[in-house]
């Protein structure tokens, strides 16, 4: 099994969003389960919360009734201020009960919107691809959500490149594989509302190649798009390998030549480790 470092960048963003709302969801497949649980248990959760609210309100009202029974003038005057405080608590309890039901409804709507989003589809694809890459034989190492940044100007096809966020980088003795995961629908591709994935991977791969060459000497870098759906037409001069995710492990494993000595392999591992979030 390959060593896995880091996790899906797309999924991390969703997890961060869910964590802020109090939900811990370790993997995409558990998000629909959470939605079903919220929808199923919603009436029970609301009724339980309202039952507790009624108990709190009743306790406060009992205190008010006891305080209101005081007959001495000065004591009644003091109790008046205490009663006002108890009534404020009752108002707060009731408002919180209304907010609780509203918040559950909002969470259900929000989770549904996540499940229907392109971001979630991409996160599912990236997580699934990681599970495929995990089956690579050692000493393969899979780095996920890698950020490469240059401290100098690097030009590629007349364009300056300073940084690249890469979905997956696989390091083997045969070299480095830069992998971009796509799960695009035919409708989305037809819309044309996207940056070319071929240009994206080309630039990221060149930046990776140039940074490694500058630091470790010439290192072979291969470029791959793992596509779960549809892609635009490949440019005629493109060298990018487009593969179905299930074929990716076989493609990487095909390269058996050992081009990276053990010490250089270890240094490149450390290089990517420092750039994996």
What is the beta-strand fraction? 15-25%
What's the helical proportion of residues? 55-70%
Low-pLDDT segments, ≥5 res: none
Q: At CATH's second level, what is the architecture of the largest domain?
A: 3-Layer(aba) Sandwich
* Multimeric status of the protein: single chain
Q: Sheet with the most strands?
A: 6 strands, mixed
Number of strand segments:
6
| CATH level 1 class label of the largest domain | Alpha Beta
- Number of continuous helical runs: 8
Order of strands across the widest beta sheet? 1-2-3-4-5-6
> What's the pLDDT, averaged over the residues?
93
Radius of gyration: 29 Å
Compute the separation of the termini in Å.
21 Å
The global form is: elongated
Question: What series of H and E elements makes up the topology?
Answer: EHHHHEEEHHEEHH
Count of structural domains: 2
CATH topological fold name of the largest domain = Trna Endonuclease, Chain: A, domain 1
Which structural category fits the helices and strands? alpha/beta
Organism: Spirochaeta africana (strain ATCC 700263 / DSM 8902 / Z-7692)
Domain NERD: 121-231
Protein name: Nuclease-like protein
Pfam family, one: NERD
Topology record:
Layout: E1 3-5, H1 9-20, H2 31-68, H3 73-115, H4 118-133, E2 141-156, E3 159-172, E4 175-182, H5 186-191, H6 197-216, E5 221-227, E6 241-243, H7 248-254, H8 262-273
Parallel strand pairs: 1-2, 4-5, 5-6
Antiparallel strand pairs: 2-3, 3-4
Helix pairs in contact: 1-4, 2-3
């Amino acid at each position: 099994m390959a060593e896995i470092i880091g996790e899906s960048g797309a999924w991390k963003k969703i997890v961060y969003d869910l964590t802020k709302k109090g939900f811990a969801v370790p993997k995409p497949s558990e998000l629909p389960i959470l939605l079903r649980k919220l929808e199923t248990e919603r009436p029970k959760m609301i009724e339980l919360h309202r039952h507790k609210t009624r108990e709190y309100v009743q306790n406060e009202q009992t205190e008010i009734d006891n305080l209101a029974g005081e007959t001495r003038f000065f004591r009644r005057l003091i109790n008046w201020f205490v009663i006002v405080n108890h009534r404020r608590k009752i108002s707060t309890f009731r408002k919180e009960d209304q907010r609780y039901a509203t918040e559950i409804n909002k969470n259900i709507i929000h989770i549904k919107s996540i499940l229907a989003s392109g971001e979630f589809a991409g996160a599912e694809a990236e997580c699934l691809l990681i599970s495929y890459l995990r089956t690579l034989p050692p000493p393969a190492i899979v780095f996920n959500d890698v950020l490469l940044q240059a401290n100098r100007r690097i030009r590629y096809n007349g364009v300056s490149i300073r940084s690249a966020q890469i979905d997956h980088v696989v390091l083997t003795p045969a070299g480095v594989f830069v992998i971009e995961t796509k799960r695009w629908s035919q409708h989305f591709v037809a819309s044309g509302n996207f940056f070319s994935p071929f240009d994206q991977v080309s630039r990221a791969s060149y930046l990776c190649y140039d940074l490694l060459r500058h630091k470790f000497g010439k290192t072979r870098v291969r470029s791959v798009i793992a596509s779960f759906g549809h892609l635009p037409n490949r440019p005629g001069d493109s060298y990018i390998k487009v593969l179905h995710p299930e074929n990716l492990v076989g493609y990487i494993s095909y390269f058996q030549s050992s081009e990276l000595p053990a010490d250089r392999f270890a240094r490149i591992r450390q290089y990517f480790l420092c750039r994996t979030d």
